[in-house]
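Proteins fold reproducibly. Look at a concrete instance:
___
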Amino acid sequence: MLKGRLAAEETDVRTAAMMVAGGLLLATPANAQPAREVRYDLSFPDAAHHRAQIVATFRGVPAGPLRVQMARSSPGRYALHEFAKNVFAVTAHDGAGRPLPLTRNDPYGWSVAGHDGTVVVSYTLFGNRGDGTYAQIDTSHAHINPPAALMWATGFDAAPVRVRIVSPDAGWTIATQLPAVAGQPNTFTAPDLQYLMDSPIEVARQDVREWPVGEGKQRYTIRLAVHHGGSPADVDRLAAQVKQLIPQHRKLFGEWPRFDHGSYTFLADYTPQISGDGMEHRNSTVVTTPTPLDGTNAGQLSTISHEFFHAWNVERLRPRELEPFDFTRANATPSLWFAEGFTNYYGPLMLRRAGLTDIDGWARTTAGALNTVLFSPARRNGGPQEMSLRAPFADAATSIDPVAPDVFLSYYPYGQVVALALDLSIRQRFPKRSLDDVMRYLWQTHGRTERPYTPDDLRRGLATVTGDAAFADGFFASTVNASGLPDFAPLLAQAGLVLRPAAPRHGWIGAPQASAGPTGVVLHAAPVLGSPLDTVGLDAGDRIVAVDGAAIVDAAGWAAVLERLTPGQTMTIRFARQGIEQQRSVRALADPRLEIVRVEATGGKLSGKQRAFRAEWLDG
């Protein structure tokens, strides 16, 4: 996103300072346009009601109306989120304090006319969702995602920015990737709109841990800023785990990213009111979950591993369609199966290689993704590229009409399974090569140079690393552009891992969960397509009345019926749809879901070749 602007800006700042010191600055000609600049002042006088007061000042405004607006999308998200909906009490005045009229012709922004070259816009922001996309303001913290909070002005994309934060509590600190302004407390700077909008801010009582990484002239500070309800010892344990984890990411790519301003910050929120999420940014990431730190920290570490991998893959190794990010529309790319899905593959793998999970834990995670993908009916309607392009309809987007279950399969598990297939296929066909080599090659050619890639660049990179263009072309044609997947059993067997039915003696009818409501126990999702329950015609919204004559009065009763099923068992289900009761006979199948287990756990023997393969792959 930032490209070479930071270095150029630093040079300009030094040059200007030297000219001021030497008295060399010339007077601005009368007809010259003053330099554009932006300043934001954030305060939280009504945090108890989730409100922030924000003042945005635009200087160097050219003659004519100025358009100010809220973003409709946010970096790292691919759908529209319409942040203007939480902005109100908007007023404007000029540099002399005179009120200015505001004209609103659309839902997203305002037009300000009659200014004197300065426009000051004041407004109230409501924010009560703490995650990687929105803002949350309460009496414990201010969690700010700039696109959800800060108005921006047309024509000011390249203007330098300053952000000043008035903390509501003297004990609160500020964590952000934005560099601080020397001599100005709680004030930060950004070179332009793109960097500002990519820079989340956490204001709270935080436990901060820092440590150095790097080699040679490349030295960086890793910062872990944690807002939580536990003890400092909890953060010490988490910091030790993160220190153990992230060198595996660096080992994979061969170097650390060039972190701007010399640091990378984890903004971690582990509080009851927060929503679970992870959101990558260029030199920081937001990681949130309502689950407290427990010493093991499995959920927190999983998100941290995924998001830190993005410091390479997405933030610098970046799809062409996302560069630059457009805040006025949904941003889509056909490569999310790689950008997000391959990251989903490597997140758990980095934890395993760091020794923070065992092989069985990694296998459970991988099997979960494999089941999701193999048994998704959406695969018959599109491959990974198609599902990537559907992100604007699915990435935390909200619609009131239901979507068919065979329309969309998340590119997260889909890409994870594609990565698993590709990694094991490369290792099988090309000795001493792996997906790790492909990632390093793409990093060297597109990531460290920050040259955005296209899908064809990914295909050509695979061909270059393997030396086999036919293999690369075939894999993309069958598995990326289309929805074909290989037989995973022999691929996993290379590492002495067995793919087998997880519960072959358990019956299965493809039933979704049910919930008890005012009218009874209702299926709140459609049955799995092609399953016994689907075949006989049951659907989401049907109310389960009885099974084999026994009334179903709560969700636990329905769950108990499903738990007792055996393959081949036939039962009679009575259900109601639109007030009319009907009855169907359903025959259970063997549960088709799979698990991955070590061959040793099945009573088999791990060969020396399998042991070596497993160690090279899963131990790194």
About this structure: Confidence is low (pLDDT under 50) at residues 1-28.
